Amino acid sequence: MLSRLYFATSIKKVTLIYNGIMKSYIEIDSSGKKSAINVCTEPCAIEKGMRLIGGKWKGSIIYHLKDKPVRFNDLVRMLGGASKRMVDQRLKELEKEGMVIRKVICERPIAVTYELTEFGRSALNILDDLRAWSEKNNV
Fold first, then answer.
1. Are residues 14 and 73 in the same domain?
2. Residues 57 and 108 in one domain
3. Buried b (16+ CB within 10 A) or exposed e, 80-112
4. Which residues pair with 36 in a beta bridge?
5. Of 87, 83, 81, 84, residue with least CA distance to 100
6. Which of 17, 43, 81, 114 could form a disulfide with 47 if both were Cys (CB 3.0 to 4.6 A apart)?
C-alpha cells in the first residue's frame, strides 16, 4: 500500500518518490523532449513472480495441491480443461523451480503424487488474494 506519495516538480524534471525511495522518473529537457531515468533494465520483482506462478495452469495446479499430495490423474481431473500433456509440462516446470515435489508411490504400474514444497506453499496467500480479487470484480 502507498504510505506516502510525493511529487517533486521543476521546469526540467518530474520525479516520483514512493515511500521515500526514488524510482524511475521522467526528465524533460529544454526542448520538451522526455527521457526516462532509472528505468528497469531487468524484470522487476512482480514480473519475476508472475513468470514463476503466472504460466497457464500453474496457479491452479499450486492451488489444488494446497491441502495434500495429489496423484497425477486426479490433478488432471481437478483441472478440467487442461490436457495431460499440459499438466505434465507445468508440473515439471514447477518441480524444476522448487515449488513442487514429485514422489513415486508405486513402480508397477507407475503411480506418482505431487505436493507443494515450503516455497510452493509461500505462494498460496498470493493465489488466494488473486482468487478473492477475481471473484469480487467478476473477472
1. no
2. yes
3. eebeeeebeebbebbeebebbeeeeeeeeeeee
4. 26
5. 87
6. 43
pLDDT digits (tens, 9 = 90+) for 62-109: 999 999 999 999 999 999 989 999 999 999 999 999 999 999 998 888
Question: Is 72 exposed, middle or buried, given 0-12, 13-18 or 19+ CB atoms closer than 10 A?
Answer: middle
Amino acid at position 26, single letter: I
Number of compact structural domains in the chain? 2
Q: For residue 116, what is the domain's CATH number?
A: 1.10.10.10
Q: Are residues 31 and 55 in the same domain?
A: no
Bridge partners (DSSP) of residue 102 are 114
- From residue 119, how far is each of 61, 79, 111, 125, 138 by CA, in Å? 14, 22, 24, 12, 29
Which amino acid, 33? K
